[in-house]
From TrEMBL:
Keywords: Membrane, Transmembrane, Transmembrane helix
Protein name from the UniProt record: VanZ family protein
Name of a matching Pfam family: VanZ
Residue ranges constituting the VanZ-like domain according to the UniProt record: 39-119
Membrane-crossing segments per the record: 7-26, 46-64, 71-87, 99-119
Amino acid sequence: MKTLLKYALTAAPFLYMMLIWILSSNPDDAVIRFPDSYWDRFIKESLHLIEFAILYGLFVLALLANGLLRYSFNFTVALIAIFYGFVDEIHQSFVPYRSATMIDAAKDLIGVTVLFWVVNRTYFRNPDHVVTRCMKRIEGFFN
């Protein structure tokens, strides 16, 4: 069971990248449209802040599950998540009814950067922090 969960956590970021690509290939209202256009736009624009932070977080979980969370790997997966955010914006520029803006790319970057900062300030610098203890528990479960 542990092995299956480990494989699932390792595959999760890549499956999530595929989901992002599929959703970005459709018009922004293909999945859900809120009745009020203001809230529809506000919620969907706000999702940029967390969408790629989730991707980075899934990479961190994959590293934890494999006992590989080191600063260099952590920095690398943060760069991959940011780069994929830029790739997604370029991809959206070719999709009808979608737009690609530097503001959206900046929101993707900010989301990843904030979570990267949290991981670095807790896991690598504060062993007594509750986040660090949870991450160490996950790491210990698999190793």
